[in-house]
Amino acid sequence: MDKYDKKMMNRLKRAEGQLQGVLRMMENEKDCIDVVTQLTAVRSSLDNLIGLIVAENLKNCLLSEDSELHEEKINQAIKLIVKK
């Protein structure tokens, strides 16, 4: 499996399009609530993508033969997810 599959990249391209839409909304002086609603949707989409990437990476790591790296990779994944 590729490190980043086409579905992951498509999700990111979709988020990029959403952000461009938000910029247009701001340029057209749309209501604050509409802009924030769209930004929240973009953030949610990116959060889901981050989770997917971390989960796939962790899964691939745990299926590998090198068990010494497992704990390090698990801790690394946790830090990426709980970085708030």
Please explain how this structure is put together.
- Helix content is 80%, strand content 0%.
- It is mostly helical and 84 residues long.
- The protein has 3 helices and no strands.
- Helix 1 runs antiparallel to helix 2 and helix 2 (32-62) runs antiparallel to helix 3 (68-81).
Which keywords apply here?
84 residues; 80% helix
Task: Draw up the topology in text.
Layout: H1 6-27, H2 32-62, H3 68-81
Quick gist of this model?
The protein has 84 residues and is an all-alpha fold. The protein has helices at 6-27, 32-62, 68-81. The mean pLDDT is 87.
Structural class: mainly alpha
Strand content: under 5%
State the low-pLDDT regions, or none: none
Shape: elongated
- Based on DSSP secondary structure assignment, what is the total number of beta strands? 0
Measured distance between first and last alpha carbons: 30 Å
Rg, Å, rounded: 17 Å
| Percentage of residues assigned to helices | over 70%
* Average predicted confidence as pLDDT: 87
H/E series: HHH
What does the oligomeric state look like here?
Answer: single chain
Largest sheet: none
Tally of DSSP helical segments: 3
